[in-house]
Structures are given as structure tokens and as C-alpha cells.
Design brief:
This protein is of the alpha/beta class. It is about 25% helix and about 30% strand. It folds into 3 domains: about 5-95 and about 130-165 and about 245-310, Nucleotidyltransferase, domain 5 (2-Layer Sandwich), CATH 3.30.420.40; about 175-240, no CATH class; about 325-385, SH3 type barrels. Helix 3 packs parallel to helix 7 (about 250-255).
Length: about 375
Amino acid sequence: MAPTFVGYPKVFVVDAEGKPLLPCHPARARKLLKSGKAEVLRGSPFTIKLKYPVSNPVGSLRAKVDDGSRYVGIALVNEHTGEVVFRGVLVQRGDVVRLLTLRREYRRGRRYRIVRHRPCRNRARQQVVPFPSVRQKKEAIYRVLADLAKIAPISGVDVELVSAGVKNPALPGKSTREKVLNRDGACVLCGSTRRLQRHHLVPRSKGGTDTPENQVLLCAECHRELHAGEAALDRRGKTFAWVAHAVLGKAYLLALLSRFGEVRVAEGWQTKEWRESLGLPKSHTNDALSLFLPGGPLKVFGPEYLIWPLRRRKWKNNPTKTCEEKNGFRHWDVVRAVRAGKVVFGCVRSLKARAMTLRTAKDDNFEVSYSKARLLHRPRGLAYMPA
């Protein structure tokens, strides 16, 4: 059954002692604020704090994570009522490898510049596993869930882990060879059924996978002509490049997620079946909320969020970030702006003399005037922006 989408969001609630409670309706939150029984705790996601403690809180939420290399889908679902109270996409950083390489070159240059030909002192140092570029992505997922656990009662996590080289169970056959043979049946170029061979669309030496999606059937003659450049094949293969950071560090991610309670693991083909049973298109948030479907229908509240993990250590004397605040706005502030009669939400990317640029859901350099923008939320550690 297709889920029901509701326009208004749920309001997160925390009691006077800081214990997270189940989210409430915006009308109820408005009454609590007007009567003086609650106060605003944070702006995004909108959270109120009660002025009295709650002795026996009832209910819990389950976090859903669709792991990926560049984008990670995250959702909070009440499995008892089928309500999806939060959904968002975590935008992973992609500059860690470049920054580590730059730091290594700086240190190497300083070593040879100050003390001539001094050898490296840390040659016996062992490599940390997983690699820093992979570890920071897994820790970013934990940072988001730990931040949401402060305002939502999370009792467990469901996660879809990316697997490379796993055989597709939808194709008949036990081995990869049988799956490719049953799928194609003959040479994909000439249709011959004699002397059939498997051809990797992306070579293994260049990061190609050994899955049926990266293989086709060719006869011996067409296979020779294809490698000689005498024939062409209009098909795209599958590589390990896009899943490398998602596959590495799976054990590290599961160890981090186990701190929130029980962890249930699903594979990609299972998520696809659950999502198609709901009639939802392919997206990171739809994959996340489709994990381990509850018994009843789903009811999705509020907009989808874009989440950016902010750097904890700022680069001092950065020549490109000379202006930290202008007209009351700072970098990464979540603002509401109006341009050409259209309302947009975004995070401040750069502060210029007459205007500022925003990161929006569709544009990374959306320029607006200072007078047409209004500050909504100043993030700390994580920037939540409604898409």
C-alpha cells in the first residue's frame, strides 16, 4: 500500500530533564508554547522543551539508514503507528583525501626545508583501519543519529549495507556464469549460440565488478573483434569505484550503530522489493523508510531534509574565508530567502559585499540579497535544511 504524505511536520519534544519523548502535532506544540508550559529548544528540526519532567515516557522510534558513498538516507519511523516523523539525506564530505594529501605535502616540505634530509620519524606507525577518508563518513552517520537521539527516543537501527560482488538473487542460476547465460542466452552482438564467452564491460584491472551487471555473453569471434577495436558495444558496466567507501568500514559502522540498540541488516535487493511494494520511486530517503516495513500503512510527515556535517576544526587564516559574519549572517546559517517572488531555503555558502550565496536543494550557488533573507537557524555541528 502506498504511503500517505502529510504536509505539516511533527514537532520533537524533550522534557525538563532532557529525556526525548514522542513527537507531537504542531497544534499541540503551539498550545504548550502559548500556555507557558514549554519553550523552543532548537529551530531545525523544530523542537520544544517542556518545563516539567515526564516520569514514564511511552513509545520509541526506530532509525532507518540507507548507507552510501556520497549520500546517506536517514529516517525515523514509529513502527507501532507507521508514522515517519523524520527523513533526510546526509551529504557526505568528499574533500578528506585531498586535505590529507595536502597536509602530508606540507609536512614533507617543512621537514626537508628546516632540517636537511631528516628521515621520517613515524615509519613504524601502523595504518588505522578503516582509512580516515572512510572512517569520517561512518562517523558522520553516527553523528547524525546521536544528534537525533537527543530529541527522539531511538530504540534501534535498521541499515542497508552496500555489498559489492554479491550475486543477484533475481536472476536464475547458482553461479555468476549461469546467471549471465540464462539472462542473455546468446551473443549480444550477433546472436550466435556457439563458443560463448563472458565479457567484462569494465575490466577487473580497472575496478570492474564480477557481478552479472558487469558481464555480457559474446561469441569467440565477437569477443576478439571487441578487444581489437573492430566492434563496439553500447552498454555500461559496473565498477567498484562508487561503492568503495560504502563497502569499506561496514564492521566499524555496525559497531557504532550498536550503541543505539538492536541493529538489523538488509541487502539492496530486499530494499528494492520493499520500496516497489510501496510504489515509491528510487531515492535515498525512500530506501531508508522502506527498510523492514511495519505491519500497517506508512504516514510520512513533513519535508525532506538535507544534512551537512560541519567541520569541527576550522582552517585558521584561510585566504578564501576572510569574512566570518556580515549583516548578521554567518557561514552555514539556515535562511529563508525570496528572489523573483519565489521562496527558497538554504545554507549560507559565501558572504559577499552586496549579496550572499546559498546552498539549496537544486543549486549550490544561489545568490540572494541580504535584505531578502531571514535567519531561521544557526547550526552547531550539523546543518539541517528543509529541501
